[in-house]
Write a structure and sequence with these properties.
The chain is globular. The protein has helices at 16-23, 57-66, and strands at 2-9, 30-32, 35-42, 48-54, 70-76, 79-82, 85-88. With 89 residues, the protein is of the alpha+beta class.
């Protein structure tokens, strides 16, 4: 399954209550059976960073639109290093 990373903003998501409300339930992470947003970071400058595993970029875009994101960029993830393990995707 391909992975993508999005950088953008969403109204109110810089508030911990809104951030929690938007993401706390599993249903908020799963756009459909094949699309999962796995990680969302709220950066210090107010931007958000989200990683998604999906069959297509359009599936991720649909989730971002549903959540009200103003997207700066969506990029495919080419390689990943995490705690000493390296993956080429």
């Amino acid at each position: 399954m391909a992975r993508w990373m999005a950088i953008g903003t969403a109204p109110g998501w810089d508030n911990v209550s809104t951030f929690r409300e938007e993401l706390q339930e599993t249903r908020n992470w799963r756009a459909d059976a094949r699309t999962s947003v796995t990680t969302v970071y709220a950066l210090g400058d107010g931007r958000l960073l989200a990683e998604c595993h999906a069959g297509s970029e359009d599936d991720f875009k649909a989730w971002l639109e549903k959540k009200g994101w103003a997207v700066e960029t969506i990029q495919p993830i080419k390689m990943l290093a995490k705690t000493g393990s390296i993956w080429e995707l």
